[in-house]
Structures are given as C-alpha cells and as structure tokens.
Specification:
12 helices
Amino acid sequence: MWALLAFMSAALLGCYDFFKKVSLKDNSVLAVLFLNTLFSSLLFAPFILLSRNGAIDSGQLYVPVVDVRTHLLLMLKAVIVLSSWLCGYIGIKHLPITIVSPIQSTRPVLVLLGALFLFGETLNVYQWIGVVIAIISVFLLGRSGKREGIDFTNNRWIVFVALAALFGAVSALYDKYLMRFIEPIVVQSWFNIYQCVLMAVIISVMNALNPAQRGRKFCWRWSIPLISLFLGMADFCYFTALAQDGALIAVVSMIRRGSVVVSFAFGALLLREKNLRSKAVDVLLILVGLFFLYLGSK
C-alpha cells in the first residue's frame, strides 16, 4: 500500500512541477512562493481548527495537540523545505523544466547516501549500480543543456537546482526521523503554516533592505493555487506512505522522483521545450538507475 501511495505522490508531483513552471514564467519568484505557502496553509489550517473544536476527533485528518519540542522540530522542517523551495523556484524560473526535473530526480541518490552514513544502512550491488548510473546521467544531461546554451559548470541557475535537490534530500531524511513519533497530518499542517510565516518575514525584510523589490512584476495566474493543491495532495500521499510499517525512505523517495516522467511529458507536449530526443535518452537513463535502486531496495 505504501508503494502505491508513493506512485500516486509521484504523479501529483509531476503536475505540481508543471504548474510551478507556468506560474513562474515572467513572474516574481518570492510572490509566487509566498502565495504557495499561503494557499498550502489555508488547505490544512481547517483540520487544526476542526480538531480543536471536536468536529474531527479521530482518523488521518485529526490533528492532536503537540508540545513545544515538537513545534520546534516542525519549524526546523519548515526551514529546510523552504530553503529547497527557494532554490528550486529560482532555478526552474530560469531553466527548462526538462533540464530541472531530471536533476531533481537524482535526489534519491542523495537520500540513499544519507541513509548510509546517518542511519547505518548499507548499499547492495543493485543500489551501487543505480547510484553510478544516476551520476552518469547528470553528466549526460549537461551535454543536452549545452545545446540550449546551458553550461552546467558555469550556469549559476544549475547551482540553485542542485542546492534544491540537496535540501530536498535532507528533508526526506528528516522526515524519516519525524515519522517515528509524529502523525503525518500534524507534520503537514504545522510546517506549512510555519513556512508561510517565514516567507512573510523574508519578504518583509527584503522589501525593507531593497525598496526596489516591491516593484517586481507579479502577474496572477490560476496555476498558482494549483501548485499548492497538487503539492498538498502529493505530500499527503507521501507522509501517509512513510508512516506505514515497512516503508523505506530510500524506496519512497526514489519512486517520487518518477515525477520526472509527468513533468517531462508536460514540457514536451505543452511547453514545446527543445532537444527533447536527447533529453529523453538522459531521462530514460535516470529511470534505469532508479529501477536498479528499486531492485536493490525491495
């Protein structure tokens, strides 16, 4: 069941990446990100309120009262995720989605390495094969990027995408720790609210330090709330899967990176991005690497 939930999360994440790309086109990164955190908070805040007044008193949507230590842990989760989002939003604004998504799909490799050193997990032969193939695929992806004038060694936006993947891997490993003693709906509800508060602070500080920031172009698009909707559903499936007995963070994280198939299809069919044949080979290679990771993690 947890694997099925992970696949559902992957499909929803692919849609999330597409709506994020559409929303950021010629738009303010900070404004779109703040609205994303705001809408995400509005999606889950009702569950907190309904749990408080007794309208919801049990089940997966019930949000119990938690102590100060738990809130601090969830605030740290918000900081990690927001760092990943900021880097990812900046990168995807300036790069084709068919370049960004495959780079993000290497996140399971980082998660596996983190599990190796932090949780004492060991890699078997299949997993090492998957790691090597995934690393090679990134170098091949650099070849495709250069055809669009994107040099992986000199392009600063690639750095942001790489940092987003790194913070995302840290977040996944942290999720494994949190799911040991915190209900999934508690994590998703509160860390979204903390993200929204942090984004409000960041925007206020940046506007104070740089008044010209206030004049940055913002264009409302209906794809903006869809970012929050699809991300909320994807994360709900993800946290629920991770909390189930026997769920492996390495496998769940790997399956979620299958979202590259959906986002690549959107980029090819609707955004008409370039060099699709070459990128398709690189994406296929990444999927082969992920398949070996799956075989080794069964």
